[in-house]
TrEMBL record:
The lineage of its organism: Bacteria, Pseudomonadati, Pseudomonadota, Alphaproteobacteria, Hyphomicrobiales. It comes from Hoeflea alexandrii. Residues 20-285 form the Histone deacetylase domain. It comes from the Bacteria. Keywords: Hydrolase. Belongs to the histone deacetylase family. Gene3D superfamilies: Histone deacetylase domain (3.40.800.20). Transmembrane segments: none annotated. This is Histone deacetylase.
Length: 301
C-alpha cells in the first residue's frame, strides 16, 4: 500500500508562551494527532536538515538572511514579524524551509507529500512579516527551478490572508504562477499582485467558497502546465479562527482540501502541501483542523 510522505521536525515548535497570538504548540500537537490517527499508520515520516544560507538567498536578500542566522534582526523588522528572532526561531525557520524543499522533492517522486510546517507567505525578499521569517515556498520553487528539477511551478494559496510575500518575490518570473484566494479585508492591508488574486468578502460560507474554488482551479492552469504545485492549506478560513474573516466549517475545509488534491492528482501534477495559518487559543482545536488536510492528502497517494 502506498504511504503518504510527511515531513516533520520537532524543532518546528519554537516553544512560545501559550498566550502568544501565534499558537506555536500546534506543530507538536498536530504531529501527535497524526501519529495516533489512521493517516499516521498510512504515512512515512521524513526529517529535514536546516536550509543553508545559499538556499535562503535565492528568495531573500543575503543581508536579511545573515541577520536571521546570527539572530540579529533589527527590532522594527522583528515587530513586523511578530516575535523576536532568537536561536529557536532562526532554527525553526531554516528547518521549515528545508521541509518544504523536501516535501517538494518527495512529491515529484511519488505524486504527493506534506510538510507539517511551512506556508510562511508574508516573508518578503528584504524581510519577514506577519509571523513569517523565511518564505519557504518561494525558496523551494526557486531552488527547484535553478536545479532544473522543474520547469514551471504553480503556487495555490488558500490561506485566509493574501500570499503577498510570495507574490512579491516571484513577480516577473514567468516560470512561477502565484494564485491566492483570500479574505479581501484581512491582513495585509497593502496587498501585492499575484498572477491570479481572488478577494472574498467577509463571512463567506462553505457553498459559495467551494463554488468559487471550482471556478478557480481550472483557471490556475489555463495556458500554464506546472510540473509541481505548492498548496498552502491554511485552515484560517475556518469560522472559529481568531484571525480569519471567513466562515468555513470543518466540512468546508475538508471538501476544499479534497478538491485541490483531486484536481491536480487527476491531471498527474505532483502536489506539495504546506501547513499555512490557523489561529486559536485552543491548540488542540486548531491542530485538529490541520489534521484534516493530511487525512485528505492520504486519499490521493
Amino acid at each position: 500500500m502506498p504511504l503518504l510522505p510527511i515531513v516533520h521536525a520537532p524543532d518546528y515548535d519554537a516553544n512560545f508562551d501559550p498566550g502568544h497570538r501565534f499558537p506555536m504548540g500546534k506543530y507538536t500537537r498536530l504531529m501527535e494527532l497524526i501519529r495516533d490517527s489512521d493517516t499516521g499508520s498510512r504515512s512515512v515520516f521524513h526529517a529535514p536538515a536546516p536550509a543553508s544560507a545559499a538556499w535562503l538567498s535565492l528568495a531573500h536578500e543575503r543581508g536579511y538572511v545573515d541577520q536571521v542566522l546570527a539572530c540579529k534582526v533589527p527590532l522594527p523588522i522583528e515587530r513586523e514579524i511578530g516575535f523576536p528572532v532568537n536561536e529557536r526561531v532562526s532554527l525553526r525557520a531554516r528547518l521549515a524551509t528545508a521541509g518544504t524543499v523536501m516535501a517538494a522533492r518527495l512529491a515529484l517522486h511519488g505524486g504527493i507529500a506534506c510538510n507539517t510546517a511551512g506556508g510562511s507567505h508574508h516573508a518578503r525578499r528584504a524581510q519577514g512579516a506577519g509571523f513569517c521569517t523565511f518564505n519557504d515556498v518561494a525558496v523551494a520553487a526557486l531552488l527547484l527551478l535553478a536545479d532544473g528539477e522543474v520547469g514551471r511551478v504553480l503556487v495555490v494559496d488558500l490561506d485566509v490572508h493574501q500570499g503577498d510575500g510570495t507574490a512579491e518575490i516571484c513577480a516577473g518570473i514567468d516560470a512561477i504562477r502565484t494564485v491566492s484566494m483570500h479574505s479581501e479585508k484581512n491582513y495585509p492591508v497593502r496587498k501585492q499582485t499575484s498572477s491570479v488574486d481572488v478577494a472574498l468578502p467577509d463571512g463567506v460560507r462553505d457553498e459559495a467558497y467551494l463554488e468559487t474554488l471550482d471556478w478557480l482551479l481550472p483557471r490556475s492552469i489555463d495556458n500554464f502546465s506546472p510540473d509541481l504545485v505548492f498548496y498552502n492549506a491554511g485552515v484560517d478560513p475556518h469560522e472559529h479562527d481568531r484571525l480569519g474573516r471567513l466562515s468555513l466549517t470543518d466540512r468546508g475545509l475538508k471538501h476544499r482540501d479534497r478538491r485541490v488534491f483531486s484536481f491536480f492528482r487527476q491531471r498527474g501534477i505532483p502536489v506539495a502541501s504546506v501547513l499555512g495559518g490557523g489561529y486559536s487559543r485552543d491548540v488542540d482545536a486548531v491542530a485538529r483542523r490541520h489534521l484534516m488536510t493530511f487525512e485528505a492528502a492520504s486519499e490521493f497517494v
